[in-house]
Amino acid sequence: MNVKKLSALFALSIATLWLTGCTDRIGMAGQAMSEIRNSPSQPIEPPPKAELVEDFVYSASLIRSPFLPPSLMNVQGPNIPTDGVRPDITRTKEPLEQYEIAQLTFRGMIISPEGQQYALVQRPDGSVASVKVGDYLGLNDGRIVEITPTQINLIEIVPDSRAGFIERPQSLVSPIS
């Protein structure tokens, strides 16, 4: 008899748990949301007051860096000259300066009736632009210095290893040479 009561109690417990799982969850969520909406709102706390902080003046900028041993202080090299080659940041960029040299293709050369030489340069999108000596192309301020039937020669201004700039020759060669 004890086993029968235990079995009945177990079956009743399982049935209760099973029926509990069938309750209306959406209705419960809606009821909880109504309770939250009907409860009085809490006042918003004002933000904390900002504290004034004294300005810090770093006064050790002229002293030896603690990260360099004294033996390396004189080996760092000369100061970088500020009067060397620099890109002209005030100059208006030309349309072909938004592409890398490797993205551009030299397609040929034409000469105007006045004798002016023009090079035809194809952009990555397939359109062709004409350029002449003195125009710029490429991302490194590449100024065209010569146009030949097989290539465009330019001088680029690129950063060097000492935080300055140097002039570097570059060529855009025709794929059909």
Task: Characterise this structure.
There is one protein chain. The protein is an alpha+beta fold. Among the domains are: 2-34, no CATH class; 95-173, SH3 type barrels (Roll). The protein is 19% helix and 24% strand. It has helices at residues 2-20, 25-38, and strands at 105-111, 117-122, 128-131, 136-137, 142-147, 151-159, 165-173. The strands form 2 sheets. The protein has a 4-stranded antiparallel beta sheet, with no helix packed on it. The protein is elongated, with a radius of gyration of 38 Å. It starts with a helix and ends with a strand. 10% of the residues are buried. The mean pLDDT is 83.
Short key terms for the protein model shown above:
4-stranded antiparallel β-sheet; SH3 type barrels; 19% helix; 3-stranded antiparallel β-sheet; 177 residues; elongated; alpha+beta; 24% strand; 2 helices
What's this model, at a glance?
With 177 residues, this protein is an alpha+beta fold. Among the domains are: 2-34, no CATH class; 95-173, SH3 type barrels (Roll), CATH 2.30.30.830.
What is the element layout, followed by pairings?
Layout: H1 2-20, H2 25-38, E1 105-111, E2 117-122, E3 128-131, E4 136-137, E5 142-147, E6 151-159, E7 165-173
Antiparallel strand pairs: 1-2, 2-3, 4-5, 5-6, 6-7
**Widest β-sheet, arrangement of strands:** 4-5-6-7
CATH class category name of the domain at 95-173? Mainly Beta
Proportion of β residues? 15-25%
Helix and strand element order: HHEEEEEEE
Q: What is the CATH fold-level name of the domain at 95-173? A: SH3 type barrels
